[in-house]
Amino acid sequence: MNFIRKYFGYFFRSELTIKHKLVNVILGCALLVQIPSIILTIAVGTNIWGIIIQFLMAVFIAAILYLTNRFPDSLVPSILIATVANMIGFPLMYFMCGGYRTGIVIWMLFGAIFTWLLVDVKWSVVISVIVFCLLNGCLRFEEHYPQYVSFLDTRNDEILDTGIAFIFVTVIFGLIFKYQTYAYEKQARTLKENDEELRKLNEELAEANTRLESASAAKSSFLANMSHEIRTPINAVLGMDEMILRECKDKQILEYANDIDSAGHQLLSLVNDILDFSKIESGKMELHPVEYELFSVMNDCYNMIFMRAKRKELEFIVENDPEIPAFLYGDEVRIRQVIMNLLTNAVKYTKDGSVRLIFNYEKIDDDNIKLIVSVKDTGIGISGENQKYLFDSFRRVDEKANRNIEGTGLGLSITKKFTEMMGGTVGVESVLYEGSTFTVQIPQKIADRATVGPFAERLNHKAAQAEEDADKAREEEKKDRFTAPRARILVVDDVKMNLNVVRLLLKNTGMQIDLASSGEECLKYTLVKRYDIILMDHMMPIMDGIEALHKIREQADGLNADTPVVALTANALVGAQEMYLDEGFVSYISKPVKSIDLEAALVKLLPKDKIVRENG
Ligand code: ADP
Questions:
Q1: What is the pLDDT of residue 72?
Q2: How far is the CA of 438 from the centre of ligand 1 (A)?
Q3: How far is Cα 60 from Cα 223, in angstroms, rounded to an integer?
């Protein structure tokens, strides 16, 4: 029983197609029919050739059954069955087993229909036409040469043979059709079940997706809020520290204050990285293309890295193709950030030797170029294995060797994301212990066809001009220094320390400064005093800066309906500036506030008659 089940299972295994299973049913039935048919043929006394042919047919069917299951993907066995049975087997049987008065015509019909079940339409038509011709040929041949036909002994035998053929063919087709219906119904059921499962799976996926999206949004807003919260106290620390640097005369304390300043700025750039990262992740990062001068990017990168490289006794060289267009159109801030990330890494991960910054370009068309910037160092290098993970977020490679070097593993992933947002690519070539070359390629529009010229020459020229500029700058600074003892300023911030920072930063201007630590308190002041400028923090509990501004504008009996209000905020999100201007602020100063920025913003807004220049 087990044996039968095993073989039955084999012929109906799930990986077979319905058509294939059908072939198995047909061949199995034919084989089962063939055996009693041989017995019957012997019993009714057909001649020995008839028996031999039937026996050979049985062997042939068994062989085909084996072959179709051994090579399920091949069409050959099906075509072979159809051809051999129809063109050799049945015509031979016609002559050996009694001619048209027996069941052979039924068998030939069976063979033709059976072909349609086995092979494709094209082959079926071809074989059916041939079978039709063969049947016709046999009938005509029998008509003219009956001596070549081995007739059955009696009319009774012929009727019996026809009956047997009829019964077998009916049973076989019955089984085939039943099986076919059963198989299609089963498949339809399975499909329906699969459909249902897929639908459920889709629903679950959609749910999981929503959960993930909201988790990711929560993470991004957490990061954005965290960095905002961190920037606020850094603002206080750096502001107070600036006061120490300005007012203290003690050398030792100045040294401490300098350290606080550099650590504070480092912390700030870290927070900015996290903010950038969370903005990119949440899709809130936008590019702000502007027209810019390439030399100024080169020069800034040079100035910012030159001292760092010098402190580590590294040679720092800037090279460029002098033919690069001098004025380009693109997001200058992000390009600078990308190059600076690569340069700070190059200096960080190089003990001795040099760091090279190389600018090249490729022409895309008349209006566009591909800006190619390479940063080449002779540092610790990166193994081939580690290069694969280099641009992953929060991934620092070779942590053991780099444990003394500070970093978060965010720089390169931000670099890559910015570069890709600008339609560019970033790549690395590196040999462990020998050095690395990072190359970014960013498409930029040409804003002006003038060329940038050799950087080194322009830098020398610049150095000569530097003295002159420094003198001018000192003059300018003197001009910018002012006092305004008659000016009245209101500063609104919920963090006391921030209020103090602004007050102290503006101490030298001698302005009359009022401090309000909430929106409500601010509204009390604006009711009784007229101010020249109001500096307003954005994020405050209960009433935020925007609401407070609107209330000032609408305040009945208020004295400041048209006083310029400047947003003072640690919210460095994209679009912030536009948002503040839209809300009615006159400008926007980002924290941590520097006294220079603050004074520059105020001097623009104060009534001219209240400003007293130091130099007269
Ligand atoms: P990190 O803040 O750790 O510097 P980055 O994303 O900027 O983060 O860099 C990821 C890792 O890539 C670093 O931890 C360092 O191992 C490796 N790396 C980056 N730049 C260089 C370089 N110029 N030379 C050698 N290794 C580098």
A1: 77
A2: 11
A3: 76
